[in-house]
Write a structure and sequence with these properties.
Elements (H helix, E strand, L loop, with lengths): L6 E3 L2 E3 L3 E3 L12 H14 L3 E5 L6 H10 L7 E6 L1 E3 L5 E4 L3 H15 L4 E6 L8 H14 L2 E7 L3 H8 L4 E7 L12 H8 L3 E4 L27 H20 L4 H10 L5 E5 L4 H8 L8 H10 L12 H4 L11
Parallel strand pairs: 3-4, 3-12, 4-5, 5-8, 8-9, 9-10, 10-11, 11-12
Antiparallel strand pairs: 1-2, 6-7
Helix pairs in contact: 1-2, 1-9, 3-4, 4-5, 5-6, 7-8, 7-10, 8-10
Length: 332
C-alpha cells in the first residue's frame, strides 16, 4: 500500500503529511526555538506544504516563530491559521471571540506576526456559541474577496454547522482530531458531511497527543497533565493499547508513530494527517511513513490493536469537551 498520494486542499495538491507547529510554543512544555526553526526548515526541504498554527499558540509566539521560519520561503508553505481563543497574561484561557469585527482585528495581527500579506486557510478554532456560524463564514468570505485570506476553514465543527457555513462561504477544509485513539467523526456524521460537500479533513492528534509515540507528560505546564486520557486507570489502559500497536507495528517494520500515521493516510486521499514534530529526528520518523510499503494486513493489524472506541477517557477535560460542536449530538 502506497501512502504518497497527494492531498487536494485549497485548489492545490499537498504533500501527504502536514506540520502542526503548536507544540513549538505551547501546551507540551518548553521547546527550543533553534530546534523548532530547524524542524520547520527540514519539513519545507522535504516537500511539506501544509503548515498549521494558531494566533493564540503562545499568545502570538507561534506565529512570530513561523514568520521567522518562512522568511524568504513564504511561497513554499500553505499557512493555516486558527483564531478566536482569548488568553490572559498568565497564559490562561478567558473566552472565545468570533465576532466579525474581532475576526478582522485578529487577522490584522496575524499578518503582522507572520510577515505576510495573506493567510492561505483561516478558521475559527471552535464553532462559537454566541455568533451564528453563517456570520463567521460571511466575515471570512469578505476577507477572501479582499485578498487577505485565500480559503475558509472550520475546526471541530459538527455536521449541521458544516452545512450552514458551507452554504455561505465554501469550506475548504475541516480540522479535527482523528486517529486510532479518536474516531468519533466516523459515527457523528462529520466525516459523511465532509465527503458529501467534498471538504477534505486535516487530522490532528494522530498520535493520541503523544500516547502512541511514547511521549511523556513534561510537567504542570503540559496540558496533558489535565487530560482524562493521561490520568490514573485511563492512562494505564491507553498505554496498553499503545503497546499493542507497537507490537503490531514492529511486526511490519514500522515504528508505532509510523503505524498511526499510516492508518490515517489509509482512510482516504481526502484526509491529511498533521504531525506535531518539534525536532528534526521526530519529523524524519513521521515522514518515513511515506517510504513504507505496507500490505492491507498491516493496516488491519494496527486497527485490531486499537479498535474503534477503545481509548479510555475523553479527549479533552469536561470544560473543553463542552465547547466541541463536533461532539454534540445531532439535532433530532
Amino acid at each position: 500500500m502506497s501512502f504518497t498520494t497527494p492531498r487536494r486542499l485549497g485548489d492545490r495538491d499537498h504533500f501527504p503529511i502536514g506540520l502542526g507547529c503548536m507544540g513549538m510554543s505551547d501546551f507540551y512544555g518548553p521547546a527550543d526555538e533553534a530546534t523548532s526553526l530547524a524542524t520547520i526548515h527540514a519539513a519545507l526541504e522535504a516537500g511539506v506544504t501544509y503548515v498549521d498554527t494558531g494566533d493564540f499558540y503562545g499568545s502570538g509566539h507561534n506565529e512570530m516563530l513561523l514568520g521567522r521560519a518562512l522568511a524568504g520561503r513564504r511561497d513554499q508553505a500553505f499557512v493555516a491559521v486558527k483564531f478566536g481563543a482569548l488568553r490572559d497574561p498568565a497564559g490562561g484561557f478567558v473566552g472565545f471571540d468570533a465576532r466579525p469585527a474581532s475576526i478582522r482585528n485578529f487577522l490584522a495581527m496575524t499578518l503582522k506576526r507572520l510577515g505576510t500579506d495573506h493567510v492561505d486557510l483561516y478558521m475559527p478554532a471552535r464553532v462559537p456559541a454566541d455568533v451564528p456560524i453563517e456570520e463567521v463564514a460571511g466575515a471570512i468570505g469578505d476577507l477572501i474577496r479582499a485578498g487577505w485570506v485565500r480559503h475558509f476553514g472550520l475546526s471541530e465543527a459538527g455536521a449541521a454547522s458544516i452545512a450552514r457555513a458551507h452554504a455561505v462561504t465554501p469550506v475548504a477544509a475541516l480540522q479535527i482530531e482523528y486517529g486510532l485513539l479518536s474516531r468519533s467523526i466516523e459515527t457523528s456524521g462529520v466525516l459523511d458531511a465532509c465527503r458529501t460537500y467534498g471538504i477534505p479533513i486535516t487530522a490532528y492528534g494522530v498520535l493520541g497527543r503523544g500516547l502512541i509515540g511514547g511521549s511523556k507528560v513534561s510537567g504542570a505546564a503540559d496540558f496533558r497533565a489535565h487530560s482524562p486520557r493521561f490520568a490514573g486507570d485511563n492512562l494505564a489502559r491507553n498505554t496498553a493499547l499503545a503497546e499493542a500497536l507497537a507490537a503490531a507495528a514492529a511486526h511490519f517494520g514500522a515504528t508505532p508513530a509510523q503505524a498511526a500515521i499510516a492508518w490515517v493516510l489509509s482512510r482516504g486521499p481526502d484526509i491529511l494527517p498533521l504531525v506535531g514534530a518539534r525536532r528534526p529526528d521526530r519529523l524524519a520518523e513521521a515522514l518515513g511513513t511515506l517510504a513504507l510499503d505496507l500490505p492491507a494486513a498491516a493496516i488491519a493489524a494496527f486497527e485490531a490493536a486499537i479498535p474503534a472506541g477503545a481509548a479510555a477517557g475523553d479527549r479533552y477535560a469536561a470544560e473543553q469537551m463542552a465547547m466541541l460542536d463536533s461532539e454534540r449530538p445531532p439535532a433530532a
